[in-house]
Amino acid sequence: MRRGWSGLSIGWLVLGATMGNATPSEHRLTPDDQPVLAFAAPVGMQPELQPNTLVQQVLFKKRKLRKTSVCGNIEIQGKSVGNVPGKIKACGIKEAVQITSVSGVALSRPSTMDCGTAIALNQWVEKSVKPTFKRRGPVVELQVAAHYACRTRNNRKGARISEHGKGRAIDISGFKMANGEVVTVLNGWRKNPSKKQLTKIWRAACGPFGTVLGPNADRYHRDHFHLDTARYRRGPYCR
Q1: Which residues pair with 79 in a beta bridge?
Q2: Separation of alpha carbons 174 and 138, rounded Å
Q3: More confident: 90 or 101
């Protein structure tokens, strides 16, 4: 019995000595194991991400347009300017907007009006002006002769305040095409093919607008269309 325990003790001693002399296997780092340090560029130096598909481009454009739209319509571009006080009591606009384009067609200058007039202008351009000039154009700009101004009708002394003085009117003198051609009310009203096109859009304005005046109205309107959103009991007044 003693001899068995002695042999077992010797075996454990040999095994312990062997493990004591063993050295752990060394693992050297390969290039693939080396840590990689990533340096992030400052926010201002990072390139702006651009949409890379047609769908993304459309959505990106809509987001941009929505930011600069007014009157609850993405097709009406501009900015809100708040209440505009008049020089006299009868003038002024509540919650005015300054419009730069409607239905994708630019205005030759930013024009101040109320939302009702902006919506009527957008409707007229979308449903009449653009389709009428589609083959000749497309139309890219409305030439604005007048918008908000605190004045009397036709600037006559003692006359009633114009709808321009209330932010309800805009005067359009011409239409610019993509090829650079400009169709003016003054030169085109009695000349074909402009006569037919101008007559068509003048007639179509009667409805969205309460008052539509052109060259046949009087000498004051021989070179532009006066469009305003005044409402009358008998319906729109168009001449």
Answers
A1: 98
A2: 14
A3: 101
